[in-house]
Amino acid sequence: xxxxxxxxxxxxxxxxxxxxxxxxxxxxxxxxxxxxxxxxxxxxxxxxxxxxxxxxxxxxxxxxxxxxxxxxxxxxxxxxxxxxxxxxxxxxxxxxxxxxxxxxxxxxxxxxxxxxxxxxxxxxxxxxxxxxxxxxxxxxxxxxxxxxxxxxxxxxxxxxxxxxxxxxxxxxxxxxxxxxxxxxxxxxxxxxxxxxxxxxxxxxxxxxxxxxxxxxxxxxxxxxxxxxxxxxxxxxxxxxxxxxxxxxxxxxxxxxxxxxx
Length: 261
Ligand SMILES: [Zn+2]
Prior knowledge:
By secondary structure, the protein is an alpha+beta fold.
C-alpha cells in the first residue's frame, strides 16, 4: 500500500551497509520508523533531505506494518549556513523528546499541527528559539494528559493569581501545586517563584504573553528549563535531563543577542 503524508524527520540512523532507518513524526501515522534504502551511497538523489531537521512530504510503501521510503520532498530544512548552534541544538532536543516519548504508530494530529507550527515559527524567528521549544514541551505535556491546576492551591483552593504570593510549591507526579500554608500536606515539593508560575499557567493555556511576561521568560528561562525537566522526570522518565544539562559541555548562547542595526 502507498501512503502519502506530511512529516517531520526526527532521527536518522545508519542501517546495514548503505541504508538508513528514519524516525518520522507524521500527521497520519504518528511516530513511525521508515527504511530508506541505499540512502548512504554517494550520489543518492535524497542527499541531505534524509538528515534531520527536515519538514516535508513523504511517500511510503507499507507492507505488514513495515514502511519503506519511496519519496521525500523537503519543504524546510533547518540546516543552513545561517543556522546557529543554539537553534540546531534546540531542534535536536525537540526531536529527542518526540522520538522518546511519543507512542509508536499512534496518530496525534493536534500535536503534529503544533510541532509543525513550531517548526515554522522557528524559521520566522520572531521570538527566541527557546520560547518555541518550551511552549512546545508544555503543549506536549498537556496533550499527553499532564495539564496542571496552575491557578489555585490544590489543597485549600486559594487563588494563586495574587501578587502578594512570592512562592508556590509543586509536585508534578502527584499533580499538586500549593500555597505556602499547605506545604505540610505534601512531600517532594519544588519551589517556584509565583510570577514564573503565572507564566507557565499562560503557556499551558496557550495564551499569548505580553511584552512584560516575555521579558520575564527571557530572564527566567533557566528556571523554566529546570521546572519542565522536573515535570518530565516526575511523570515520564526519571532520567530526563534539562536542556542546559544535556548540552552542559558545550558553550552555547541560548538567548541570542538581537541583531544590531
Ligand atoms: Zn493552600
